């Protein structure tokens, strides 16, 4: 903030305009985006906010997101109810991390 204050007190008008625009942009980003929109989006997305794709998890060498097996569970239950004899493995349990 001190940088923008020093730039806005410069004698050149172009630098004053630049400093005012940068300061306003940072203020809008801090107040509207980070204080209002990000918490609202986190509450809207719920569990999906923390979902990590399997390919990215494999690249980063971490465990895949726990969200995906819960989503696949109803399909397995339907198969078992229909008489399917497939083993109850999730796609993530077969994924090996290097």
* Largest sheet features: none
**Cα radius of gyration in angstroms:** 25 Å
Encode the helix/strand succession as letters: HHHH
- The poorly predicted ranges are none
Number of strands: 0
Helix share of residues?
A: 55-70%
Number of helices: 4
Question: What is the averaged pLDDT score?
Answer: 76
Any idea how many domains? 2
* N/C terminus separation: 46 Å
> Structural class of the helix and strand makeup?
mainly alpha
- Residue share in β-strands: under 5%
Shape: elongated
Written overview of the protein:
- It is built from four helices and no strands.
- The protein is mainly alpha-helical.
- It has two domains: 1-49, no CATH class; 51-85, no CATH class.
- It is elongated, with a radius of gyration of 25 Å.
Task: Set down the secondary structure blueprint.
Elements: H1 2-8, H2 13-45, H3 54-60, H4 67-81
Helix pairs in contact: 1-2
Short description:
Helices cover 63% and strands 0% of the residues.
Q: Characteristics of this structure?
A:
98 residues, mainly alpha, 2 domains, elongated
